[in-house]
Amino acid sequence: MLKSLEVKDYALIEHIQAEFGKGLNIITGETGTGKSILIDALGLLLGERASTEVIRKGAAKSIVEGIFEVKGNKKVEAVLSENDIEFYPELIMRREISLKGSNRCFLNDTPVQLSVIKETGNLLVDLHGQHEHQSLLRTETHIDYLDELGNYDDLLQKYLVSYNELDRIKHELETLKKREATLKERKDIVDFQIKEIDAVSPEEDEDVKLNEQLKILENSETLAELTSEIYQVLYESENSIHDAIVKIRNDLIKLNGIDKTFEESVKEIESVLTLINDISSSVNSYASKVELDPEHIEGVRERLSAINILKKKYGGSINSVLEQRKKLAEEADLVENFSGKISELETQLDELRKEAGTIALEISKKRNETAKKIKRNIEDSLKQLGIQYPDFKTVISNDISTNENFVIANNKHYQYYGKGIDKVEFFISTNKGEDPKPLAKVASGGEISRIMLSLKSTLAKADKLPLLIFDEIDVGVSGRIAQKVGQSLKELSRYHQVIAITHLPQIAGMANLHYLIEKITKGARVISSIKRLKDSERVTEVAKLLSGEKVTESSLESARQLIEFKE
């Protein structure tokens, strides 16, 4: 349930805040006051496309925030858990649109992606826009309405997985067949490149190691000369540092024998002597191992040159050479085993056609069962809405495929689509004795609105829609029919919270809570405001809807009767 909605700097809205309640929440107001703007703002909150054009002139950003009661809503709790968001009985959804182009979304003050807002919104609200009932005139939407009314979401999801995999394998097979001739032409080139790389067989990071090795080999004379010289100075020459340190040590030992204050100096000179011995030994050992081998140097240079040629030809690094070698091997293997690979994919494709076909056939059965179940519900609802002799029919058909676009079910090749093998179209007759005809061709505007309301009513009773929002569902109806539409909305509000914008007094009179949107002048600007009407104010507002701006005692009395309110 939507508990409150706050909108700042959105179109004509400077700042409004409204608290909604259970049952039927009605919103009225003159044309142009901003009723639909409020619904648009709510649509923005629920994840619809944003534009900086909605930001109120002079403002830096638009903010829409809603607080929903979600206690016990396991689906919402699961979405929040997946996104590491704490779950509370109340959920705060917020969306901000900035002139800078930033689009920020929050759930319980935690930043989230727009997709998460949209997923959450779909679990909370069904927003029926001002002209959405016209979607019933588009035949391609009928299958979605039928599936919403059914209870086979798991099958639809299972089919979608098979459908996507089927398309993937088909595409891979088609691509492979197209590549066959090209790959065979490339076979000689591929074989040559494999041999070229294998002739060198570079190892990972080998060039780095060889460069380090070459640097040492090319400077072997300098290394030998300098290490020998250091050894001579430190240890082997007549006046070596080692001998000088030994003499100093011996003198310090004598001094320490006289005065113990030299004891620490004796220890330190011993350490120096040990260090000199270690360094001397190390450089002497290194000097003895220095290799002066021109042939070895040339071999390293040639190896590096061969590696660098491969690097230049195949991507600039040894890793890219090794990656290319892997790709070439796969390509060569594909050429060698082309018929086997094609046969393997064709087998997979055949299995997927059967798998998808089996699921699609099961979905088709469920659709036919659902169509029979909802026929009576929708016809009963239409009778309550003033269509006395409705004959509502869901026509489900499928086609045998004459091309490669098919799935297999009952040993038949069916044309298939993203939602199965079915084409769905609603047919209706609103006059006694007439055969049902395509809804898109025979229904009037008022009938379309009532059919949509009937569908929504059936959906609501199936417990799929927690909050229903209608923006002028009463298009094309008036008088006695408007009264019946109001009663239907009232009935819907028994199952779920309903928020509806209307201009008809018969519907406004059914409200549990009634809100008025008005334009007011603030400084040099016109802004929209919203207020919740008290009982006496409701009577006046409904009376205005009945008689216009001039309210008479007669219209007030009629309003009281409509809202069943006694002063």
Question: What does this molecule look like?
Answer:
With 567 residues, this protein is of the alpha+beta class. The protein has a domain of 193 residues: 3-Layer(aba) Sandwich (Rossmann fold). Helices cover 55% and strands 18% of the residues. The chain contains 18 helices and 17 strands. The strands form 4 sheets. The protein has a 6-stranded antiparallel sheet with strand order 2-1-4-5-6-7, covered by helices on one side. A 6-stranded mixed sheet has the order 8-14-15-3-16-17. Strands 9-12-13 form a 3-stranded antiparallel sheet. The longest helix has 48 residues. The protein is elongated.
Mean pLDDT: 86
User: What is the CATH fold-level name of the domain at 1-125 and 466-533?
Assistant: Rossmann fold
Counted beta strands? 17
CATH class of the domain at 1-125 and 466-533: Alpha Beta
Strand content: 15-25%
Sum up the overall morphology in one term. Answer: elongated
Helicity level: 55-70%
What's the gyration radius in Å? 42 Å
Major sheet: order of its strands? Answer: 2-1-4-5-6-7
- Structural category is alpha+beta
Are there runs of 5+ residues with pLDDT below 50, and where?
A: none
What's the quaternary structure here? single chain
In CATH, the architecture of the domain at 1-125 and 466-533 is 3-Layer(aba) Sandwich
For the largest beta-sheet, the strand count, sense and barrel status come to: 6 strands, antiparallel
Q: How many distinct helices?
A: 18
Terminal residue distance: 31 Å
- The CATH superfamily name of the domain at 1-125 and 466-533 is P-loop containing nucleotide triphosphate hydrolases
